[in-house]
Design brief:
This protein is 14% helix and 47% strand. 15% of the residues are buried. It is mainly beta and 124 residues long.
Length: 124
C-alpha cells in the first residue's frame, strides 16, 4: 500500500501545469464527472447493455487522479490518456481500459475473461 501512495504522489508531481489543463481523449476534455448508465457483463455468450439507475459517478480530476463516488467504499485511483484510449488504475488488480464512443465513456475491466463493459455519460 505504501508503494501505491508513493506512486500516486510521484505521478501527480510528474505532470506539468499545461498537461493538467489539456487532458483530452479523442478530442474531448475528459475532466469532470461521468455517471454509470449501463453495463454489459457476460457470464458466457453475447449480451446487451443493461441500464443502471443512479449509477456510481466517476470524476476525472486535472491532476491525474480519478475518484468514484456512490460506491460502498469510494475509490481513488490514477488515470492516463494514451494514444489508444485511457487507462485507469485503482490497485494492483483493479484496472480498466477505455475509450470514447459516440460521446459515451466505455470502460472495460482488465482481466475479465468474458465481456465486462461499463458505459458512462457526462453529467457536467
Amino acid at each position: 500500500m505504501k508503494y501505491s501512495c508513493l506512486f500516486l504522489i510521484l505521478f501527480s508531481l510528474s505532470c506539468s501545469e499545461s498537461e493538467l489543463r489539456t487532458v483530452e481523449l479523442s478530442g474531448v476534455n475528459i475532466i469532470g464527472k461521468w455517471q454509470l448508465e449501463a453495463t454489459k457483463i457476460s457470464p458466457g455468450g453475447p449480451v446487451d447493455w443493461s441500464n443502471v439507475t443512479d449509477g456510481p459517478i466517476i470524476e476525472f480530476k486535472p491532476n491525474g487522479f480519478v475518484e468514484v463516488s456512490n460506491s460502498e467504499n469510494g475509490q481513488i485511483g490514477i488515470y492516463k490518456i494514451e494514444e489508444d484510449g485511457i487507462s485507469i488504475r485503482f490497485s494492483e488488480t483493479n484496472n480498466y481500459r477505455g475509450s470514447l464512443q459516440e460521446g459515451k465513456l466505455i470502460l472495460g475491466f482488465i482481466g475479465c475473461i468474458e465481456e465486462c463493459s461499463f458505459r458512462y455519460k457526462r453529467i457536467n
